[in-house]
């Protein structure tokens, strides 16, 4: 008899516990994949940039707890947000959950492709986005069809832990989060030397050539207070900074050593500096900006810029937008280091504002930087010698001041290079330098009023300059190669106690000479070796200059006082009165409403005008910009920038404006000089 055919036993229903376990494992796997991708797209690039930017946290005076909280937010919040979006899709069923997860993987792969593409390809903008979309689609398809991509991503979920560890333990910012040490040894007195009060004002991003007239002297007409300072001090005219980046330049000035390593500008990394050297014999009143070289045991810094988690999160969000975008960022990160005004900080004036025709509105002195106000308030004689120190981010960008002290608004992404734009950048720089000159005058007046002027050693200098050479704008190696005279050479004035007359010293001064010179004048013996040379010693016989775009990697070039670039000749129309004739075209201008309700008592004026003109108006066409019937600027039409702007004009003369309604006119200047008024919208 034939055996009966075998029959498979009926399938048993899947136990609920088994379904739950498989579902839990699937969700855990999806979560790990999201952790890995968000870590690569958000956590790694942000912590990489922030880890190399300790000055960001130093400027905003973030304490270790705030930094750790920011790291936690950067690491956890984006991951939780994306994972929660995927988890909610499960409410629509398993299929919807799987499709949503695959879509999220594709989007994150596309976002990662944008960042990778910016680094390894010349693609930018829409072409890069298209390639990224294709990469994201391919990544989603591979993830859907094969198991290997998912397995790789789950292993990569350990990445965020590694990124956080590198940030906290290895990056330059680790010194700010976990500081070690509290400064080096104090200096000792040089015999029976007298220790005079020391007043040091360090400006930022100020080329020597910006102050010079055609004769190579300080332009007293434009900068009367710098000229006044030069007339009573020793002007080291052949003075150069050693780096175009403040976190390298300022420590070199205050330690007497060339930049050697890329470390945080923090007392734990530079224990031997002017504050520790003077701390045994001097009281210290220090106002630093993007450094923290003075240890807590020597001084506190009461005036701070905007700080707290709010500003840290906001600026980090802006950073993510620049890191993740398909175009190169045109915004200088240091432009976020803006000095708070006295009014914003809620400070009272250090001294009454002097009677000055340009201060036509009571509130203009409220625009005085808060750190400067605090510095002035401390300039008083004391029983014990005091080091008064201020590093002020002036005339450093963002440029926002007219020479009178009135402020104006400008787009953050306004170009600084390119046809027309580099000239505008230089004009804005020179306008802010005019206001900086006013601050120098306030300093000299306060010193005289307090009785400190004659007895004090007064030092005014800048850490580095900036190039406005077309095609090489900025402070990096391209700028150094094209315009070293604008980037490296800075004004340096040293007024000795009781010095009455000025003199010029053209020795080869490098900014590592600053500390040994100040220490000698103050009767302090430094307890460490320096690379610099005191001005009381014989000058260097070698005229070579040293510049460090990267610590430990100097480039050299010959010395010699640079020749200032010629100032642009004002157009004959500037300052003339014009009549509003019939319209013969059109233009679009940003924020026209600001001209209909101008209130000078706020200390703010609509002094920067920017907009667009029709394509039929060719590049190079001149436009005359007038306020209340008087031409304030003549500027060219240029190719549209990424923001669509084809012209921008700075109206540096605040006397063009009055309270209430002001009339703005823009004219097209014909080849024969005729003006055609453009209808504004």
TrEMBL record:
Keyword Transmembrane helix tagged: yes
Domain of life the protein comes from: Bacteria
Domain Sulfatase N-terminal stretches: 223-524
One Pfam family in the UniProt entry: Sulfatase
InterPro entries for the chain: Alkaline_phosphatase_core_sf, GAG_Ulvan_Degrading_Sulfatases, Sulfatase_N
Membrane-spanning ranges: 28-47, 67-86, 98-117, 123-141, 153-170
Positions of the UniProt region annotated as Disordered: 324-349
Keywords: Membrane, Transmembrane, Transmembrane helix
Signal sequence interval, chain numbering: none
Keyword check for Plastid: no
PANTHER family per UniProt: SULFATASE, SULFATASE N-TERMINAL DOMAIN-CONTAINING PROTEIN
Name of protein: Sulfatase-like hydrolase/transferase
Native species: Micromonospora parva
């Amino acid at each position: 008899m034939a055996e009966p055919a075998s029959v498979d036993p009926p399938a048993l229903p899947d136990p609920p516990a088994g379904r739950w376990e498989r579902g839990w494992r699937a969700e855990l796997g999806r979560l790990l994949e999201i952790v890995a991708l968000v870590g690569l797209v958000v956590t790694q690039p942000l912590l990489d940039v922030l880890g190399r930017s300790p000055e960001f946290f130093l400027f905003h005076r973030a304490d270790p707890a705030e930094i750790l909280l920011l790291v936690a937010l950067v690491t956890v919040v984006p991951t939780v947000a994306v994972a929660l979006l995927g988890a909610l899709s499960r409410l629509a069923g398993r299929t919807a959950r799987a499709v949503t997860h695959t879509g999220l993987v594709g989007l994150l792969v596309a976002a990662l492709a944008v960042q990778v593409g910016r680094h390894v390809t010349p693609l930018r903008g829409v072409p890069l986005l298209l390639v990224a979309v294709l990469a994201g689609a391919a990544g989603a398809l591979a993830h859907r069809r094969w198991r290997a991509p998912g397995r790789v991503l789950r292993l990569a979920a350990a990445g965020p832990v590694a990124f956080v560890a590198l940030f906290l333990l290895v990056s330059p910012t680790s010194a700010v989060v976990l500081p070690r040490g509290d400064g080096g040894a104090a200096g000792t007195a040089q015999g029976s030397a007298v220790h005079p009060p020391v007043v040091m004002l360090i400006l930022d991003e100020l080329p020597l050539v910006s102050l010079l007239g055609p004769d190579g002297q300080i332009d007293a007409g434009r900068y009367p207070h710098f000229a006044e300072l030069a007339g009573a001090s020793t002007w080291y005219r052949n003075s150069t900074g050693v780096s175009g980046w403040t976190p390298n330049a300022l420590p070199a000035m205050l330690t007497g050593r060339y930049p050697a390593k890329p470390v945080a500008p923090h007392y734990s990394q530079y224990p031997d500096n002017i504050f520790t050297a003077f701390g045994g014999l001097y009281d210290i009143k220090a106002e630093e900006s993007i450094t923290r070289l003075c240890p807590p045991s020597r001084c506190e810094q009461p005036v701070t810029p905007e700080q707290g988690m709010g500003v840290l999160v906001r600026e980090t969000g802006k950073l993510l937008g620049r890191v993740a975008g398909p175009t190169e960022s045109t915004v200088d990160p240091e432009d976020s280091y803006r000095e708070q005004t006295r009014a914003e900080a809620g400070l009272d004036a250090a001294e009454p504002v002097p009677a000055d025709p340009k201060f036509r509105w009571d509130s203009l002195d409220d625009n005085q930087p808060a750190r400067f106000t605090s510095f002035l308030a401390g300039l008083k004689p004391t029983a014990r010698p005091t080091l008064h120190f201020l590093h002020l981010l002036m005339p450093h960008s963002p440029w926002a001041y007219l020479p009178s002290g009135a402020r104006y608004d400008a787009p953050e992404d306004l170009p600084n290079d390119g046809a027309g734009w580099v000239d505008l950048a230089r004009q804005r720089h020179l306008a802010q330098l005019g206001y900086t000159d006013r601050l120098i005058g306030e300093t000299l007046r306060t010193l005289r009023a307090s009785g400190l002027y004659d007895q004090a050693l007064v030092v005014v200098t800048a850490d580095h300059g900036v190039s406005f050479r077309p095609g090489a704008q900025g402070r990096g190696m391209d700028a150094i190669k094209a315009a070293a005279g604008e980037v490296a050479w800075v004004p340096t004035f040293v007024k000795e106690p009781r010095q009455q007359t000025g003199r010029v010293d053209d020795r080869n001064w490098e900014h590592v000479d600053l500390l040994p010179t100040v220490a000698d004048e103050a009767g302090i013996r430094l307890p460490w070796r320096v690379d610099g040379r005191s001005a009381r010693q014989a000058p260097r016989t070698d005229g070579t200059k040293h510049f460090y775009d990267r610590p430990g990697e100097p480039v050299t070039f010959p010395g010699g006082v640079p020749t200032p670039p010629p100032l642009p000749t004002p157009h004959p129309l500037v300052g003339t009165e014009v009549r509003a004739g019939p319209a013969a075209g059109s233009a679009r201008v940003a924020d026209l409403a600001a001209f209909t309700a101008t209130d000078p008592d706020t200390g703010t004026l609509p002094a920067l005008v920017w907009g667009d003109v029709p394509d039929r108006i060719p590049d190079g066409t001149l436009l005359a910009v007038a306020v209340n019937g008087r031409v304030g600027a003549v500027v060219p039409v240029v190719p549209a920038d990424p923001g669509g702007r084809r012209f921008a004009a700075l109206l540096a003369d605040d006397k063009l404006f009055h309270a209430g309604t002001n009339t703005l006119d823009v004219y097209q200047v014909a080849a024969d000089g005729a003006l055609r008024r453009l209808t504004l919208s």
